[in-house]
Amino acid sequence: MLLNNHFEDLSFSEGKIINISRVIDPGYTGVNHWHPFAEILLSLKEGNEVTLNFKKYRMKPNDFIISYPGDLHSINNVSKDSFLVIQFPMRLITVVHDFNRIQQLFYKSPFFKYDVYNAEHDKMIVTLKEIVNQASNEKIFNEALGYSLLLKFFTYLGQQCVTEELEETEETESAGYKSAKLMAEACLYITQNCAEPLTLEDVAHQIGISKSYFSHLFKDFTQMTFVDYLTKERIRRAETMFSGPKKKMIDIAFECGFTSVSSFNRTFKKIKGISPREFRTAMRQSITDKA
What we know:
Blueprint: E1 2-3, E2 7-8, E3 19-21, E4 38-43, E5 48-52, E6 55-59, E7 64-67, E8 73-76, E9 83-88, H1 91-94, H2 97-101, H3 103-108, E10 111-112, H4 119-135, H5 142-173, H6 177-193, H7 200-207, H8 211-222, H9 226-242, H10 249-255, H11 261-272, H12 276-290
Antiparallel strand pairs: 1-2, 3-9, 4-7, 4-9, 5-6, 5-8, 7-10
């Protein structure tokens, strides 16, 4: 069910922790929405199109894309039997320390373009299809087996992400490595200090370059302005606080760097399409339903 034109209320069949589908609900076609679960979309046909956080991806058979909790996405140009869909709470993955350490690499590369000549790619696609096939098995422990396959898939994906990150780093060592390193340092500093009244000048001074040069490099590196990135990190911090011990909304707003509850509410709703209070209710209800 789609609420407030953005939030999708997912119902997992029979209380299962992993939801499998071969059908895209027409009600979501071309409509931007998000949900508190992760979703893997494996393309089975040519010409599928998915928009994720306002970026459009054209998909071919065996390409896949992952929307993580809170990501705005829409599915376009959908025909019958064009996707395999796997949905699950992200905590099933991040509970494993190895995956939690590289979580940002998963977010960095949500779209996977299939390479027929890469055996590691085949392993990922085969595992996704095994998860879907396992779901139709009525034998005892089939859900546990499906979960083990999901962990197996993220192991392959994590190894691929780490490999690509290392290759990217090696490529930038000869051209722009210093700049990339500085921007990575800046992003980490912003994430760790987003609750403070940070300014562009503060971060530029922190990494030792001029304000104008930092502004130019940062936009190229993140594809965002400094203000947009800082706001995104503050909202992401608020999201994590919603799933922890319950706090007053005013405390969450101030602890995430907002100067007032009204600015927090306004900014959060602009980005998520739903108020912070409604978001927290949805997150807590999802956790309760899965408990």
